[in-house]
Design goal:
With about 260 residues, the protein is α/β, with parallel strands linked by helices. It is built from 10 helices and 8 strands. The chain has a single domain, classed as Vaccinia Virus protein VP39 (Rossmann fold, 3-Layer(aba) Sandwich).
Length: about 260
């Protein structure tokens, strides 16, 4: 069992309730915004691959809408939950697998490739590039790829500041002199600069469509957001939709989504 395997299985088995993660209002924006952009590219007969499907929030949703879905999930615990929710009406195949090896799929077969978790947990440039190149390979020439990632400055706020790790993070060299989070499995999550992701995608010959904030700053203010009335939340949601492509508000977003094509 390699280090990534051991650490991620422990994290998702014991520390993270992935199945309910997107339920609170402060997390709903991540799903709503991602779906808003997926909807731009959905068409009848569309075939979707979700790499790193977790417990199936997206895969099950699109399968329930009548789309043909393939799901790959690294952690068996998450995969078991996903499979338990599949109904007879859904055209979905869910399997255990790794984002850096999609060899079970032929080239150019998916209209939409969703990679909504793996970049959080790939700790070397080789792994990141392999994930991107494999996603590109299986995506149709006129298809779309969507890669979720964590922006570095948001992690400095959510983890170092709000969770009280500034001193310990500094003492234990969990970020460098420029406050870039160190990428290693023991830290669970990997963070990127927004410009860094764009350069990585360019080097892999992924043409940028857009780069968006999916959750904004809402998770930093979870107590406020969760206590909004439905009417107030609707206003905040619409503000978020109107601003999620603006670079000046993206750095502190807790989740980003790079959308590209071949």
């Amino acid at each position: 069992m390699n280090n990534r395997n051991e650490i991620l299985n422990k994290f998702y088995n014991e520390a993270c309730d992935e199945d309910t993660r997107l339920d609170p209002k402060h997390r709903q924006l991540e799903f709503l915004t991602t779906d808003r952009y997926v909807q731009k590219y959905l068409k009848p007969g569309c075939r979707i691959l979700e790499v790193g499907a977790g417990t199936g929030k997206y895969s099950l949703y699109y399968a329930s809408k009548g789309y043909k879905v393939n799901s790959i999930e690294y952690v068996q615990h998450n995969l078991d939950i996903l499979k338990s929710k599949i109904t007879d009406e859904m055209d979905i195949v869910a399997e255990q697998g790794d984002a850096i090896d999609l060899s079970r799929y032929e080239d150019n077969i998916f209209d939409i490739v969703l990679v909504l978790g793996p970049l959080y947990h790939l700790y070397t440039e080789e792994e990141v590039n392999k994930c991107i190149s494999e996603s590109k390979r299986v995506c149709k020439n006129d298809g779309v790829m969507m890669f979720a990632y964590l922006p570095n400055d948001s992690v400095m706020i959510s983890w170092a500041l709000l969770k009280g790790h500034l001193k310990s993070g500094y003492d234990n060299k969990q970020f460098d002199e420029n406050f870039k989070m160190i990428s290693e499995p023991s830290e669970i999550m990997r963070a990127f600069y927004i410009d860094e992701i764009e350069k990585i995608m360019y080097s892999n010959e992924i043409e940028k469509i857009t780069n968006i904030s999916t959750s904004g700053v809402a998770p930093h203010f979870r107590n406020i957001i969760d206590n909004l009335s439905d009417e107030e939340f609707e206003i905040w949601k619409n503000y978020h939709f109107s601003s999620c492509e603006r670079k000046e508000v993206q750095g502190y977003s807790t989740h980003m989504l790079y959308i590209g094509k071949k």
